[in-house]
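Okay, any thoughts on this one?
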Amino acid sequence: MAIRVTAALLALIGLVLLAGGGWLLSLGGSAYYLLAGLGFLITAILLFQKNAHALSVYAVVIVASLAWALWEVGLDWWQLGPRGGVIILIGIWLLTPWIRVPLGFASPTGYRYGVSATPLAIAVVLSIVVAVVSMFFDPYDQAGELPQQQAAADPAFGGNVPAGEWHQYGRTPYGQRYSPLDQISVKNVKDLQEVWRYQTGDVKRPDDVGETTYQVTPLKVGNSLYLCTPHNWAIALDAATGKEKWKYDANAGMNPDRQHQTCRGVSYYKDEAATPGSACAERVYLPTSDARLIALDAANGQVCTSFADKGVLHLETGMKYNPAGYYYSTSPPAIAAGKIIIGGAVNDNYSTEEQSGVIRAYDVNTGQLLWNWDSGNPTATAPLKPGETYTTNSPNSWSVFSVDEALGLVYVPLGNQVPDQLGMGRSENVEKYSSSIVALDINSGADRWVRQTVHHDLWDMDVPAQPVLLDITKADNTTVPALVGATKQGDIYVLDRRTGEPLLPVTEEPAPGGAIPEDFTAPTQPTSALSFKPKPLQEKDMWGVSMFDQMACRIRFHEMMYEGRYTPPSLKGSIIYPGNFGTFNWGSVAVDPERQVMFGMPTYLAFTSRLVPRAEVPPKGQDEKGSEQGLNRNDGAPYGVFMGPFLGPLQIPCQAPPWGYVAAADLRTGKIAYKHRNGTVYDMTPLPLPFKVGVPGIGGPMITKGGVAFLGAAVDNYLRAYDLNNGKELWKARLPAGGQATPMTYTTDDGRQFVVMVAGGHGSVGTKPGDYVIAYALPSGK
């Protein structure tokens, strides 16, 4: 009975592999699956016949499969496993007495002897040995160390922020995510323990949009922490104990048309001219998901009614089109030179009639509009007059700005004009400013320089990350004010922040063509000398938990359009790699201004993009919710677009891991020092398996003078500490929810250093939602 069931199973596997393998071969893919299907069928037929040669034939299948796998991927355990797992398990089953005995012979006394299976046993053992050996190799790991010498003895951190405080999203206006605190060091970070935990009470609701996320980095000023929540509550906590001081609910309401429901942070301001302790002498500015900016008294959370309209700035003012839920602010505005400077997020790919991407500066005390810079009309920076409107649908900035008050510049990361995947009819200004870093004059709003990172962007490769500012020491010991710009496509631009000129070379490289007839592609695209761009995908990079879904991914790989980075969207579907989550996203990178090195989390996850003719876009449903994945309608455009991660039949990535790293580079030379797999599949699978695959993530890092880098972000729920020198993991703490935020650090009055992490999850990456703010410190007395 066992032998017949086994033969039937092998016959079924053989037919599946024959059909899929033949399809794959017809698309120009590997012939392996077709040949393997033949091997399975022959083995099945011989088993039905109870022919002892079945085991020898299957031994050939194993050896040939092993040789093919090693030829394709070498000693990569995560790639070898799917190729050989099913095959080896069947081989082991064929060695059991239930199969060998029926294939054997009977003695004159009637005793049955099993057939010899030496060739099959050798093949199985050889495969297992190769699998075990491969577990000790990681062909993707890049070991190394950063230079440890101090390049600047007295570096500029930006702003007048005490060492034990954290006043802005990236600690200072420079956005370095670097703290000069060193109480927590490489030697003692292993002793960190949780010291308090606060829950905001703002939890994900059943009627929330998919991308309801908690991405806030708290601020620490004096003895208080200031933060916001996804539904736009502002909260002040005691920095030493985590006890709530006050809470303000902006009552932003719910709207299913919002693409994002999040808050990355609030902005802090101290009016030096005000009497200390007077009402609103210190303020917290809260951006909301219904397009407001609210001024609150930092002391008690009361609205500062002297600002704007009774304490509220209405950001929809001046917009020609204003559909509810299509425009909001998810990032804290910049404050400099008496101005509060803010952009706004628009819903990607909803409509061609969306709000402007204008950047506006207001008087930080009164809310009076001082200037506006609209990338669709960049020379008209004088405040808009009543009745006038900004350019519809111009490139926007949804991320965080950086400021150099000495140079009088604010640095703005810009996005793209929606629809992101359709470039027809874009104006000359849109083509110039899309997906770029722009330096604006703080006083006038005039643009002083622009550095574009993608030409004619068709991939949603907006610049997502706050530019990081530092001074770089050149070989002749002169210093240059620099800007570090991390991009979705993996390039790290190191620029002179006075002019936008590269300090590390930027070259133009040929780019794929093949856009739809109505559109075009740029013949070349810029690439920085410091780049974490991925190698182009190949068929052998396709992955799965078994040979079957791997074969399906190989078929899909060949069915879609793919010619490397910047493959344009198409009607048949294109692979976009890196995907629109990017190699880097809003979490940016952390920079040590003393050693002039950077630490970050490059992520590699391919997406797909398929254009849908307008006639095939279904009517808008009443229960649709905002999303950047699935069908993006592009109302008013000739095409919608269906987009999402490049996944296999089992909804796991079609490309092989690793999908996420921790990495570091020397900003003076552009040399990448190390790249290590980061994160496990502990929270990605039904079973809590601690396999260090290298998982994707979204969030930001932090560096301290103690030589420790902190990072959550990965889709397993941990906060980790790393040795900045070599990237080795030193400590980790289990989080009660996804840690898709950026950690920060500070000291309290007694000199104790705290590290704070927000754990609230991220809707798009599927991590566990929550409402936690957690503080860690060394045990008292250490």
